[in-house]
Each structure stands twice: as structure tokens, then as C-alpha cells.
Amino acid sequence: MTAPITLSARNLTRRHGRREIIRGISLQLRRGEVLGLLGHNGAGKSTTMQLLTGTLIPDSGQIEICGFDLARQPARAKACIGYLPETPPLYRDMRVDDYLTFAAKLHGVARSAIPAALTQAKQRCGLQDAGRKIIGTLSKGYQQRVGIAQAIIHNPDVIILDEPTVGLDPTQIRDIRALIRELGNAHSVLLSTHLLGEVENICDRVEIMQHGQLIYGDTSIRMQRFGHQSGFVVTLLAAPALDELRALSGVESAEALSATRFKILHDANSNTPAALLAVAAERGWQAQQLTPLQGNLEDAFVQLTQNEAA
Amino acid sequence: MILTIAHKEFRSLFAMPSTWLLLGALQFVLAWFFFARLDAFLQVQTQLAQLANAPGATQSVAAPLVSTVALILMMLVPVFTMRLIAEERRNQTLVMLMASPVCSWQIVLGKFLGLLLFLLLIIASCMLMLLVLALGTPLDLGLLFSNALGLLLLAAAYTALGLYFSALTTQPIVAAVSTLAMLFGLWLADMGAADSDMLLRAITPTSHFQSFNEGLLRSTDIIYFALFISIFLLLATRRLHNNRIYG
To answer: What's the complex ipTM?
Structure first.
């Protein structure tokens, strides 16, 4: 069973003068999905998010949120969105509670439901003790949390977060990622970032953006394998000559990382690690450690964006 | 939605110490003017009493005080209107309003009403001060009412103008200076206009306020203020909408 589509955008374009900064972007987001939007600085991630939240109007294209057309029924469509812009939109002289209450009212939460919504949002973002504090006096990490709380207080179906973990310390990043993952189970989350680790950890799907276009989209696991070469790193205490390693079956290249560590790439079909270990035992190379190379998103990303640029 | 924004705007004014300071200083200045006027009136009162159809306390104390307040409003309103949109834009909080299910006109109207409520407080405090006169002398309540209404309409007109200028820029100071320049220009035009210059008289808010100050409730003046306010609120809405188009 597939979950219902909560956000769909078709052929969005946006010009800035004569220059097209967004070119024909189409996106779909389902309930319970976390989509990562990945790209260099200036690739158009933030602009795309502004288009999707109605703070910018596209020159052409259509956006539907929970079945409401953003251009025709903006009020109903926007009530289903929670948005955290790049800079959290905080009124520095307000108290956290007052600010979140204001955000809830602004998004049409019924007066009677506000206290519950406030408690839930604060609890989810770890702000229980910060309610009476003035936002301007909070640290950057806490301000970011207030920004996220503001985006989720009305329990929106679609949550759009523009670089939510920028400027946070590692523990906070871990907390926020866990929160996003939790939100992603019941809502749809669209997340932009240029941290690849973030995408690897929390996103179900990835779209890579460059020069205002989506150039590649896939599930994040499949993408990690994109262009991946099988290989391993092995430590041999009694190191042989490189040529001996190259002579093993299936080896495509071997290089020395240090006197005793070697990186060996092999073709996917042959079982080179086993062959190496057998030879090593036979010739007394004293094999100590063998670590398979993991495909990672970083390589895939670099490869994809370079392909496109070339 | 409109009221939510108005309420937030109203409350945020009182979060700033400068607001309290201004309110206090204003009250002091008004009281000082009031006593000076009252003193002058008491000195000439015996001579006035010999005239037929002599001006009463309302006409010689209240009306001049109210026209002083009108002048002070001209300098005061830009200080408050400058922050309305320009500061939100500068602090990037405007995005929150733009992304929420609220139309541009609701944002504009909310901010307008929020500030107007605050100015109403100033006007009310001034009127209360004048009502104290009732302890010693009968008051012309009709004249007082038309003055209060005139002051409110004038404040609303200035607020609408200031709101528009605030919507134009990112810098609150630029908004304040241009609003003040505009209001000052309109005031000078009214001061300098010859009695026969009907066009200048027709477009300046102060000349329309004049008739309220004299106790005249003329529909043309009320229509003028209604038009003035709605034109600038519409322009501000338009500007805010253009934000979504031009970024």
C-alpha cells in the first residue's frame, strides 16, 4: 500500500530577471517520507522551498498541498505546511511561550487546542524549561529549536525545513535528527542540506539539485551504491611488493596507503578478499585487518554533480 | 487572524522600554501645554466674560491643546510605524507571516489596527486630561467629540502612510525619515497655502483636521480621511504582495 501524496509540484520555474534560477522542478512527497534536497550553495534549494511554501510565487508550474492548489486556495494549502526558513523567523523580544502561541494562532489552531499544542511542540523540541525565557537571550541551538517548534506546532502534514541543523553542536544535531526522523513517521518532511551525513542518516529519498534543476533522485540507500566500486583496505604486517597484490585474481588496482596498509579495488564478481587471505596465509604476509570500502553518498554526490558540470 | 496580528503588534510595543519612556515624556509635555493654556485662559477670563458670545473653556483650552497633539502626532507616528514591516523584513521574520495562511491584506490591516489601538491610548489619555476641566466649568462635549474624532482620523491617516513607507524598505530608519519628510511636507504645504489655494487645501490632512478642530463634522473631511487611509493601506498590501513576486 502506498501512502497518500501530501505535496506535489509540477514544472516549477522561477526567473530572476532573464536568468532562470529554478528550471522545471517536479517533486512528490508522500506521507511518512523524509526527502532530502541536496545541492551546492546557490543551487536553488532555498528558492525551491520558498516556492513550495508560498513566500515566492513561481513564474509557471503548479503546487498542490494535501489536495489544495497553492495558488487558488492559499489559506487552506498553507495551513498544511510548517516551514522553517534558513534564518529562523524569531521575534527576539518575545517569550518562547508567547511566540509559539502566536505561531499557533497564526496557523489557525483553535483557541482551546493551543495549550496542548504548545506543550507537545515544546516537549518534542526539548524546550520544556525554556517557556518563560525571552528568545533573544537563548543560545543559537535553542533558537533553532524554537524555530522548529514554530514549524510543527500546528501539526502540519508537510514540514519543510531549510538547513535545520546548521550551527548546532553535535549533540544537538543528533537530537534534531532524531526529532526529524520521528516527525517523518507521521508527516512528510522535506529537508534541505549540504551535509551529506544528514541525508545518509535520516532521509528516505534524495533529490540532488544543481543550477536550479533536479539532476538525480533515488532512495538514499540505492544512491549510496551509485557508481560504487567494490574494494577493501587490508593491513599486512609483512608487506609484499605491490605487484604481488596486483597479480591476485580480480584485482583492478592496488595502492599503498602506508607501509603496511593497502587499498585494493576489485571487480564485483570475484571474491578477492578470500583469495588474498588464502595467499597471505600461504606466503606469511601476516594479514591483520580487512575492512570493506563502504559506498557513501559523498562520492556519489561528487560524481553526479561533476558529470553534470562536464 | 487580523486580530492575532494586531494583538501581537500592540503587545510588542510595550515590550520595549522606549515606548514607556515616550509615553511618559508625551504625558509630561501634554500636561505642561494644558496648564499653560489653562493659566492663560484664567487670566483673560474676566475680560472674556464681558464679551457677548464669549469662547468657553473647551474652545480656548481644549481645541488648541488638541491641535498641539496633532502636531506632535506628526513627529511621533513615524517613530512607531517605521518598525511595522521594515524591521520584520530586516530580522527575516516577515517570512513567517508570508508562509502562514494569512493574506497580505490581513497582515497590513492587522499591523495598522495594532498600532492604531496604541495611538488611541494616547488620544484617550489626552481626552481624559481635558475632561478634568468639567470639575470647574461646563464643557462643550460636542466640540470635544469632534476633536477626538479628528485626532483619531488624523492618527489613522499618518499610520497608513507610515505603514506604506515601512513596507517599501528594509531599514526602519529610512522608513521613519521618509514618512516624517512626507508628513512635514504636507504640513508645510498646508501652512504655506493661500486661502484661495483649494487644491493644496484639499490634499493635506492637516487642513481637513482643521474643521474637526473647530467643531465641524463635514462628510467631505471624513471621506477624505477614509480615502487617504484606504489608498495607503492598499498600496502597502500591493507592496507586500510584490514581495512574493519579485522576492
So the answer is: 0.88
